[in-house]
Fold this protein.
Amino acid sequence: MTPRTAARLWALQRLSAAYLAIAVLVHLATIIYAIHGGLSSAEILGRTQGNLAWLLFYASFVVAVALHMPIGLRNVLSEHLGWRGRSLDLAMLAVALVVLGLGAQAVLGVFL
């Protein structure tokens, strides 16, 4: 990996981490609000289904995770197992796509 690519991955992981910190706080605050409000699962789904704001929020959450997690995993595998090169890049791309696909399916399931 070139130094420029490494720097870009480092920056992307830090940016996604900053976004995820905020998104997790919003998510937890929403859960706490719903629980303290005595909302049932059906009532929560009733509020999220068809709500474009929640769709965009959780879709961006999924994208941030799909970017953040494979970069960190890539570093761990490279440092601890010595795995480097194109096979590692392709494996992390596959991990990112799986996370993105499963996350999108969950988000759409709640939205639709």
Observations:
- The chain has one domain: 3-111.
- The helical segments are 3-36, 41-48, 52-81, 86-111.
- The chain has a mean pLDDT of 94.
